[in-house]
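Closing statement on the guanosine-5'-diphosphate-alpha-D-mannose sub-project.
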Amino acid sequence: MLQLAIVLPTLNERGNLRRLVERLDAALTGIAWEAIIVDDNSPDGTADEARAISLADPRVRCLQRIGRRGLASAAIEGMCATAAPVVAVMDADHQHDPALLPGMLAALASGEYDLAYASRFAEGASTEAWGRPDRVKASGLANALARRVTGVELSDPMSGYFMLRADILRADAHRLSGVGFKILLDILATVDRPLRVKEFPLHFAARAEGESKLDRTVVFEFLIGLYDKWLGRIIPTRFALFGTVGAAGVAVQFATLWLVLHALMHERFIYGHWSANTRFNLANTIAAVVAMTFNFVLNNELTYADKRLRGFVPLLRGWAKFALTCSLGLLTNIGSAAALKAMGFHDLVAVLTGIVLGSVWNFALSSKFVWGKY
Ligand code: GDD
Ligand code: MN
């Protein structure tokens, strides 16, 4: 009877697969296992290689996803695609030693533990062979943050190498975020019942072939995920991003205004004959447009990264819509402040309320009108 499925998420790992299957085979003697390679249609033909291996060894299966991306979601789908009662997830690039698998399986079989995982930071583990002191530091930081926000107390909740009972995973699979790399953390923070976790020290190796897929987007998504868990229910993540970008826009407007007034509109330079008021108004208009454009670009890159507009025409159209939205937002802003002031509220209260209402308006409208399907 099938005992264990090893899920291997892959993105351009063609050169690593064959030897990895050999290493699994060697490590898992006496255990009925299968390997599920979940490949996101890698351009290097990883899925073809997986199928070629599978032809000769049906224990190896390939799940090829089209138009999908992400380590965590690949792991979830792989774990749901097997009948094995126990599932493991590991990197396909030889950084995770398959020799730990039998011990992990035994820990679960004993009935004393629900989840086993390999830690790069446990007593007896090492990361020297990795050869990436920068990443060791970054992982330490990410782990500390993750522990803070989720209350998970493991030495390496960011680990990508773990094993658990499949029924536990499936019961809560629909509640996992499936975003980015943080699959273990996600499981630990999502499953309601307290999981009994056994830690295995890992000698984290250097990647065999190819390169890491952990990029800026993954890091950003990780931070967003933490925020979401931390404050997301009070101030929705997207609105928080939108607001942060807006605040940065205020700084940009001031900086641009100063620059235009003092550097370009110098007495002896052009426009020297204009009155001070005209110069200020012209400079402030330029500054406002620059700030708005800055906000548009940043929101497109960060706040709406998942719906990012690309290409000249869509960007131009989006920018124009954003400008329209913002001018209506400005009316809301000024109008509500004027109304509050007339009702006798303090200036500061009136202005701040105006800013908040204008931002909410901008946010609500642009999320539909600029980045949404309208
Ligand atoms: N299907 C799929 N889709 N697989 C992916 C994707 C994706 O978008 N991105 C990465 N993978 C696969 C890789 O092909 C590899 O097998 C595994 O996931 C881990 O990715 P790496 O690119 O090797 O990650 P790393 O070595 O830089 O990161 C290590 O540390 C992280 C935490 O610091 C890994 O151990 C991660 O698992 C861990 O979360
Ligand atoms: Mn790796």
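Residues 318 and 363 are 14 Å apart (CA to CA). With this model delivered, the sub-project is considered complete and its resources will be redirected to Aim 3.
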